[in-house]
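Page 47, continued from p. 46.
Same chain as before, 268 aa.
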Amino acid sequence: MREKIVFIGGGNMASAIIDGLLEQGRQQADFLVIEPYAPTRDGLSARGLHCRESVGPETADAALCVLATKPQVLREACGQVRQHLSPAATVVSIAAGVQLASLSDWLGGHARIVRAMPNTPAKVGLGMTGLYATPACGDAERARVDALFAAVGDRIWTDSEAMIDAVTAVTGSGPGYVFHFMSALAQGALELGFSAADARRLAVSTFRGAAGLAASEDVPLADLQERVTSKGGTTYAALSHLRQAGVADAIAQAVHQAEQRARELSAG
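Result:
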């Protein structure tokens, strides 16, 4: 018998995970989505997914319960889930800034919980998800959760819950940094005479190609940069300017700022 996965919330990230799992061969009948917002629920139902407006007894036989609501309504959602949750189930929270202690309390002392921090490229199967599990989660539980997020990209397990804040700063917020740089590159192309459409195409293709090249070779990123930098050439001129402007330091500091804010949110 295939294990049931319940999603509390059927928004973009839940939909991305479900789509990834369906592409890997899971069946629509394997999922139950609890979604109170009627238009979203109707859209999911139209795709053949089993949906309900509120949590009920059907949740009791779920092996995985994925909390995919917004953080501000998570406590209320947990209050509904706790009434039907099996002690054997593994709960996965993708809510940023909500600590395991709070989740366990809201779930009536439930022990098997995993905090996950996916990012938006999960929507196209290229996500990176940071994961941390409570000690009550054994190898089987971790394997289930790992398979869940393998459907939408890469995963990294952390050794402490505090490192989830670091994951948030690097990869959770990271796409925003990339889009910022990409936008600046497109602006430069625009100023050199390209149309807006072509400038965007040049920037996006450059990032896609560079990322693909980096993923294909297990070498330091600095080495890849060195390969495309000839002394006195165009790349050398551009990188010299970036170094003088302190761009690398600014990016590193931006990551630290994001991590600090993540810790503040986690502390409530």
